[in-house]
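Worked example 2:
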Amino acid sequence: MSIISFGSNFMVLDGDAKVMKSLPKGTFHVTFSPMSGYGLEKLESEFVIPETQHVFGRRDSKVDMIEDSYKDSDRSVGVMLTGEKGIGKTLFSRMVATRMRKHNMPTIIVDGMSIGDASGLANFLDTLPDDVVIMFDEYEKVFNEEKQNALLGLFDGTSVNKRMYIITANNTYKLNDYIKGRPGRFLFDIKFNFLNDKDVEEYLNYYIPDISESELGFAKKLASIYDLNYDMLNALVRMHKIGYSFLESIETLNLGLKNSDEKSRKTFAVDFTIKDKHTGEVTKESGTFNMDMLEVLSESTGNKYFRLHSNKYGYDSTVTYAYLQEAGDSYIAVNPEFIPDEDETDVKSNQLEVSVIAKPKPVVGVDSRLTNLSKTYGYE
C-alpha cells in the first residue's frame, strides 16, 4: 500500500507508488472513471513507426516542417490532418510522434473511451507537463459540437504551456469553425487526398516488384476513374499475389469504389423553396451540392443530413439543415430547418418554411471507361 499526499488531500493506492516530475518515454492512453476521474495508462504497444516500416506518400518534408516549427516555438503547436478514410492520416500522425520521440516527447492518445465531461477532460489535459504529443484520432466523430467548444481553450496559442496537439478528421464541415483558419490554435492543416497514379505506382512497385508494365499501367489508370486509398490497394495486392487480376478483384471485392469524375461524382441538382409565413413571400432557388456533404450523423437512425446555402439570406453563412428520404429517383428533405446568420436579427428561423427536392445527376461513362481500359491493357 502507498499513500500519496497533495495539499490537504491524501490518496491510498494498492501496491508501491512512484512520484515522477515528468512522463517517461512511451505511449499513454487517457482513461476516465466516474469514481476516480481522469488518468493515464501506459500502453505496451507504441504509437511510433518501426524503422523497418516503409512509408508511402513522400511526406517527410512536412514532418520536418512540423518538427522545426515546434523547436522554434515558445508555445503549443497544433497539427490538423484532414481527408478521406484510408489515405494515411493516422500513419502520418505516427510519423510525427516518432520524430518528436527523438526530443523525449511521450505520446498521449485521446479517444472515445477517454471522454467523461469535455470540460473536465480539457482541465485534465491542461495539467499535463510540457513537451508531450497529444493525439485526437477521428476528432469530429468522437467530439460533437458542444465538446469541441469545451476544448477550444486547450488549443489556444496564448497558453503558457508548450505541447503538440494532433487531430485527424474525415469530415471537415463537422469541425468547429473556430479551429479552421486559426493558425494560432492549429498552425498546420495538412490535407490528404485520394491517390494519384504516382502513389499507385510507388505502392505496387514496392509490394509487387515483378509487376508487368501492362498491369501497372492498368492500375495507374484506375486512379483517374476511381477514388483509391491505401486500404483498397492493399486488397488488390493481396488478391494479385494469389493469382487474381486487378480487373477480377475490382469486379468482386468489397472496395466501395466511387467514380472520381469531379463533374459528375456524387452531385445532386437541388431545388428548394423558402416561404415567409408572415408576408407570404416565396423565394425559389436552384443549384447543386456535392454528396460529400451527406454524412450519417446518427448511426442509430441512419438519417443522412445535408446543408444548403441560401443566396437571399446570406450565401456564406445561412444554412438549411435536413435529412434526406428516398422518393423514387429523387430525395426529399424531411423536416428541414432554416438557420439564418446570427447577425440577421430581423429573420427568425420559425418564420420561414422550407421545402427541398434533390435529384441525383447521372454518373456518365464509368462502366464504359473501365471496359475500354481493360481492353487497352489486355484483359478479356
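The radius of gyration is 25 Å. The mean pLDDT is 75.
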